[in-house]
């Protein structure tokens, strides 16, 4: 990678201008990622992401259509456990680290709506 | 510094087993060393002295009662803060988990305990194992014992520094893109990434699940093999764990010969970007292997140059999902819950405050690579590259028994040098990443100094050929120690010991 | 926003053709959860059936429950699906407080079972519902919404989460679009849900209780103007938790969408919620942006490749399926289509079968379950199968009737006693003294007394008005607390009054 980087001045924007990631896209990604980023942080990240994405896009040069994808390091299959009950945590253990709890349940801020 | 902290793990285990010293004495010596130097090194995030001594006394009691002890019983180990521990906080170097006490032990934690190892404490790391310097830790940077102004590598930099600074004879790490091998290389010690699935990930706070591989650090190849053997092997709690016997790594480390072995030099791992000193030490190591009877050939792995971009798509993609659970609902930090904000807002505020810049960068990158419309062009392509790299390895291992390369292109870089330049930081993993993408085992062993800083030799083997990297690593270690008249680490400057 | 008026159902159907799609979630009745060993019992105290895995604690890893995979393959086979040779789990990424990892382990483009069908009957006509896919996933926790007026999510000021249900194995069954059902669309939807429930229940892999949420339906509805060829925009109605609600939700959505379209509006692709109380659907929160679930292969789990041998073994182990069973019992029990439907809808097939197996004749077995016991079930608002009476007990009562020891009225009292927990039928008979009075002398004296007490009626009978004997029989039954043989009493009365 990053051959381009060696030759660049580090200011970013090594990629095609058309492939640049926009600030709106970065804001969208931040929402999807549940990150409340300030304007400065968004701007900074947009520049860095643009640079990184331009560099990693190199994967598109080499991988031809007929190459199968690999999702796991090793080709294992069919790993199962028997349907046996094992001890659960005590509720006090389960709730020990909860930022807030009430009635042996995790207390969370109001939820906007069912998502799925 | 007492002589005890200079001893290898194998020596300490033997001394404790024979009763010449006690686990408590050994533990105390290391606690003293930590007290004396960790103020400068900052290898540890959590040390609980009483707990350490209690563990050591338990071993001594078992010995006194006549119980048979394993080879590492009573030997101290520094444990990367990415492994869950019931009795110590586990933070993965992140603010978002500050103070978290897990209700369960990682499988490797449990196996350390079962083997009688004494857990000294939890070591510093780049937040969620993302980084090559520990500068991304939320709790301060660890310093390289060779030069305190330089990084100890990362992400397992606390673990590498602890061993290099004689604060522990052994330590644990995890290697996702080089996070054991690169810190081992730049601190002049031994670090091993086992075959993926050879060591359990259960209780390892995930960075990139298909790449994360726990492994050992030590000052000698044999010590690393002993620790490897102690904590590896099948775990039914990890679906990706391999249900096969652990390769005979200890035997291989003792054997330490390369006669007749075919060694391939990866052609693509050379040239611009490699410091001249690193290239020179590597060339000498190859000559050394040849002189020891290995048959050296040059091997081409044409797709290895795509490993880094593929890695920087796959690892952040998995990370973006793995780190979603840090949402302020069940454990960890919660920010902004003032009774008016929604769960969604509290999640976003907490994550923005609780994660550091590199973690956020990678979450965003991974979210991008997986999002609809981009998946095929980025994540999908990266997975195809993974296939191509695997094919490169397969065809290389038809010609040779092991592959060698420099572990990392440079020696330890100064703290701060790359902190704001993620692209430069990522280059540290150039040579180590291919093995992560394919699950192959690899070791880094010291192979000399460049401008007074350690250089590492990487040895890679086929999947489940972990014994081979120990065998070759031990042969190189033995030959170089003969040449140098002692371990490389003896060249490291003495750290000033703080007054007690 | 204005609320368009609903269009009357008949008019809606005259102008529009509905297209349905049904997604059904079924919790499997395994002993332990999908990916961990926690128990699955319904109704446990909050957060008592959780562990590091199903709480999504950092470092924990899933391991697939073999019985769950067996269960889904059985469902797939029963739906005549193809069981694929290789598939993976995928992560569905979205943030939600009741989802511990903030992703759901599910399946995306590689479901385990594909291309099946289920035939359902409405008013004597058979509709083939094509099944697109059947896939495996995990359930979420449950939230209790606190504050606000309704206990609903809207207006609550915080929520309390119980993760006992998190990680329960969940099978999702997705139909292909169901077309050409015309005005029977709601009935076809209900018949499909009913048939699916019967099918899964017959397999013994789930208790499929909609009221406990172990079976839940999401109903997709779209309308296209009659004569059009392109489908309209669909809505997805969630929260449909009874068979009746499935029918009502479809009907309501047809009326609503027709009203919107009639008023010149557009149907918004959205999630809607069904309300049992009003029988109407309301819009879910309109999403600012389309969901992007960023699916990718689950790296913590290895692919599944069910062997053909295993699949065939499971196929051979399938019980008689409901359709075949219905055809058989209709033949064996001599039922009309209508009678069969009533028995099926009442969920009485298995109960009646078991009663017959315990010795009762088919008509009697059916009579008790469909009349007397159904009435009790309705009164108590429980399923027939949940009444505290066994088929063996029903057979025992019928045996006493056949032997002339009980009449129907007494038998009903016996059932009352059994249902009230007074013990087995024989115990109730003994305790309540419920035996037919068969002693001729005793009955004759009662008859004499009744004739004496009811001179008017007796005269009428003497005068040839035989129908008036009914009142006298009634009086005898009253005097014997129902324990007389009514037929024999009538004979005696007529005999004594010379009217025979």
Automatic annotation (TrEMBL), chain A:
It is an enzyme of class 6 (ligase). Keywords: ATP-binding, Ligase, Nucleotide-binding, Protein biosynthesis. InterPro entries: Asp/Glu-ADT_sf_sub_c (IPR036113), GatC (IPR003837). SUPFAM superfamilies: Glu-tRNAGln amidotransferase C subunit (SSF141000). The keyword Nucleotide-binding applies. Its EC number is 6.3.5.-. Residues 1-21, 96-116 are annotated as: Disordered. It catalyses: L-glutamyl-tRNA(Gln) + L-glutamine + ATP + H2O = L-glutaminyl-tRNA(Gln) + L-glutamate + ADP + phosphate + H(+); L-aspartyl-tRNA(Asn) + L-glutamine + ATP + H2O = L-asparaginyl-tRNA(Asn) + L-glutamate + ADP + phosphate + 2 H(+). Pfam families: GatC. Belongs to the GatC family. HAMAP family: GatC. NCBIfam families: gatC. PANTHER family: GLUTAMYL-TRNA(GLN) AMIDOTRANSFERASE SUBUNIT C, MITOCHONDRIAL. Allows the formation of correctly charged Asn-tRNA(Asn) or Gln-tRNA(Gln) through the transamidation of misacylated Asp-tRNA(Asn) or Glu-tRNA(Gln) in organisms which lack either or both of asparaginyl-tRNA or glutaminyl-tRNA synthetases. The reaction takes place in the presence of glutamine and ATP through an activated phospho-Asp-tRNA(Asn) or phospho-Glu-tRNA(Gln). This is Aspartyl/glutamyl-tRNA(Asn/Gln) amidotransferase subunit C.
UniProtKB/TrEMBL annotation, chain B:
Heterotrimer of A, B and C subunits. Allows the formation of correctly charged Gln-tRNA(Gln) through the transamidation of misacylated Glu-tRNA(Gln) in organisms which lack glutaminyl-tRNA synthetase. The reaction takes place in the presence of glutamine and ATP through an activated gamma-phospho-Glu-tRNA(Gln). Belongs to the amidase family. GatA subfamily. It catalyses: L-glutamyl-tRNA(Gln) + L-glutamine + ATP + H2O = L-glutaminyl-tRNA(Gln) + L-glutamate + ADP + phosphate + H(+). It is an enzyme of class 6 (ligase). Its EC number is 6.3.5.7. PANTHER family: GLUTAMYL-TRNA(GLN) AMIDOTRANSFERASE SUBUNIT A, TRANSAMIDASE. This is Glutamyl-tRNA(Gln) amidotransferase subunit A.
């Amino acid at each position: 990678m990053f051959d381009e980087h060696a030759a660049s001045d580090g200011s970013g924007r090594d990629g095609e201008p058309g492939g640049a990631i926009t600030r709106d896209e970065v804001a969208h990604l931040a929402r999807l990622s549940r990150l409340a980023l300030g304007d400065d942080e968004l701007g900074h990240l947009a520049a860095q992401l643009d640079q990184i994405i331009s560099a990693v896009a190199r994967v598109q040069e080499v991988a031809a259509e007929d190459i199968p994808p690999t999702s796991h390091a090793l080709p294992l299959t069919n790993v199962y456990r028997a349907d046996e009950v094992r001890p659960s945590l005590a509720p006090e253990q389960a709730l020990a680290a909860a930022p807030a709890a009430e009635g042996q349940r995790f207390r969370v801020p109001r939820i906007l709506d069912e998502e799925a | 510094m007492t002589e005890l902290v200079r001893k290898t793990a194998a020596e300490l285990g033997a001394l404790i087993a024979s009763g010449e010293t006690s686990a408590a004495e050994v533990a105390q010596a290391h606690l003293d060393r930590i007290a004396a130097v960790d103020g400068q090194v900052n290898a540890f995030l959590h040390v609980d002295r009483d707990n350490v001594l209690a563990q050591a006394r338990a071993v001594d009691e078992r010995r006194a009662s006549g119980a048979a002890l394993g080879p590492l019983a009573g030997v101290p180990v520094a444990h990367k803060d990415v492994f869950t521990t019931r009795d110590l906080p586990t933070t993965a170097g992140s603010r978002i988990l500050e103070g978290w006490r897990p209700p369960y032990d990682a499988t490797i934690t449990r196996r350390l305990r079962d083997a009688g190892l004494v857990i000294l404490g939890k070591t510093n790391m780049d937040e969620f194992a993302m980084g090559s310097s520990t500068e991304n830790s939320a709790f301060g940077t660890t310093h390289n014992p060779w030069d305190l102004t330089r990084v100890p590598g990362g992400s397992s930099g606390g673990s590498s520094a602890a061993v290099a600074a004689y604060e522990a004879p052994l330590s644990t790490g995890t290697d996702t893109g080089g996070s054991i091998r690169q810190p081992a290389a730049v601190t002049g010690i031994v670090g091993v990434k086992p075959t993926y699935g050879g060591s359990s990930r259960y209780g390892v706070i995930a960075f990139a699940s298909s790449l994360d591989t726990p492994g050992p650090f030590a000052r000698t190849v044999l010590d690393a093999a002993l620790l490897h053997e102690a904590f590896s092997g099948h775990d039914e709690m990890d679906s990706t764990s391999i249900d096969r016997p652990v390769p005979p790594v200890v035997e291989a480390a003792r054997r330490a010969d390369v006669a007749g072995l075919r060694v391939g030099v990866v052609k693509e791992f050379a040239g611009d970007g490699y410091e001249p000193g690193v290239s020179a030490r590597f060339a000498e190591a190859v000559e050394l292997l040849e002189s020891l009877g290995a048959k050296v050939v040059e091997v081409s792995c044409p797709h290895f140059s795509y490993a880094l971009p593929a890695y920087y798509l796959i690892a952040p993609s998995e990370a973006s999902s793995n780190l979603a659970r840090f949402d302020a609902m069940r454990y960890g930090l919660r920010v902004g819950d003032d009774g008016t904000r929604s769960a969604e807002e509290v999640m976003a505020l907490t994550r923005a405050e609780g994660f550091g810049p590199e973690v956020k960068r990678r979450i965003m990158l991974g979210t991008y690579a997986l999002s609809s419309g981009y998946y095929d062009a980025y994540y999908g392509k990266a997975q195809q590259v993974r296939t191509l790299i695997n094919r490169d390895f397969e065809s290389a291992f038809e010609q040779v028994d092991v592959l060698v390369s420099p572990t990392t292109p440079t020696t330890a870089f100064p703290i701060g040098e790359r902190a704001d330049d993620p692209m430069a930081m990522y280059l540290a993993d150039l040579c180590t990443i291919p093995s992560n993408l394919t699950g192959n085992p690899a070791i880094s062993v010291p192979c000399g100094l460049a401008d007074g800083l350690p250089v590492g030799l990487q040895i890679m083997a086929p999947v489940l050929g972990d014994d081979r990297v120990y065998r070759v690593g031990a042969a190189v270690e033995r030959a170089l120690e003969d040449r140098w008249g002692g371990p490389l680490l003896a060249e490291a400057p003495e750290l000033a010991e703080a007054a007690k | 926003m204005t609320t368009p008026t609903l269009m009357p159902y008949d008019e809606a159907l005259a102008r529009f053709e509905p297209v349905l799609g049904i997604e059904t979630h079924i919790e499997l009745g395994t002993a332990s959860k999908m990916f961990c060993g926690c128990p699955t019992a319904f109704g446990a105290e909050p957060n008592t059936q959780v562990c590091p895995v199903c709480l999504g604690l950092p470092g924990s890893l899933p391991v697939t429950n073999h019985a769950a995979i067996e269960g889904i393959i059985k469902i797939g086979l029963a739906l005549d699906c193809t069981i694929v040779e290789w598939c993976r789990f995928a992560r569905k990424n979205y943030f939600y407080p009741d989802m511990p990892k903030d992703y759901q382990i599910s399946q995306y483009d590689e479901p385990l079972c594909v291309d099946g069908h289920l035939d359902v009957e409405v008013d004597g006509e058979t509709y083939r519902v094509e099944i697109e896919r059947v896939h495996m996933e995990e359930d979420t926790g449950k939230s209790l919404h606190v504050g606000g007026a309704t206990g609903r999510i809207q207006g609550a000021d915080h929520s309390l989460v119980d993760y006992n249900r998190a990680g329960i194995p969940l099978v999702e069954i997705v139909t292909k679009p169901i077309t050409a059902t015309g005005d029977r669309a709601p009935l076809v939807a209900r018949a499909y849900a009913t048939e699916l429930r019967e099918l899964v229940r017959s397999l013994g892999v789930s208790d499929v209780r909609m009221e406990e949420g172990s079976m839940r339906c999401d109903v997709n509805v779209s309308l296209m103007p009659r004569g059009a060829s392109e489908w309209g925009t669909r809505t997805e109605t969630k929260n449909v938790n009874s068979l009746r609600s499935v029918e009502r939700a479809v009907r309501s959505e047809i009326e609503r969408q027709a009203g919107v379209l009639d008023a010149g509006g557009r149907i918004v692709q959205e999630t809607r919620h069904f309300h049992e109380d009003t029988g109407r659907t309301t819009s879910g929160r309109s999403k600012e942006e389309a969901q992007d679930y960023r699916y990718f292969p689950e790296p913590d789990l290895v692919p599944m490749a069910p062997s053909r041998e295993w699949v065939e073994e499971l196929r051979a182990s399938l019980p008689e399926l409901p359709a075949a069973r219905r055809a058989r019992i209709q033949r064996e029990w001599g039922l009309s289509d209508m009678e069969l439907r009533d028995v099926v809808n009442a969920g009485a097939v298995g109960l009646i079968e078991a009663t017959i197996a315990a010795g009762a004749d088919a008509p009697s077995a059916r009579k008790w379950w469909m009349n007397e016991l159904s009435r009790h079930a309705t009164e108590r608002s429980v399923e027939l199968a949940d009444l505290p009476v066994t088929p063996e007990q029903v057979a025992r009562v019928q045996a006493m009737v056949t032997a002339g020891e009980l009449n129907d009225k007494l038998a009903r009292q016996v059932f009352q006693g059994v249902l009230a927990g007074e013990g087995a039928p024989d115990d109730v008979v003994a305790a309540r003294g419920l035996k037919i009075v068969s002693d001729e002398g005793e009955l004759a004296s009662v008859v004499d007394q009744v004739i004496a007490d009811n001179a008017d009626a007796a005269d009428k009978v003497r005068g040839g008005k035989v129908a008036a004997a009914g009142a006298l029989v009634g009086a005898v039954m009253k005097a014997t607390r129902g324990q007389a043989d009514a037929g024999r009493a009538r004979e005696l009365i007529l005999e004594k009054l010379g009217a025979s």
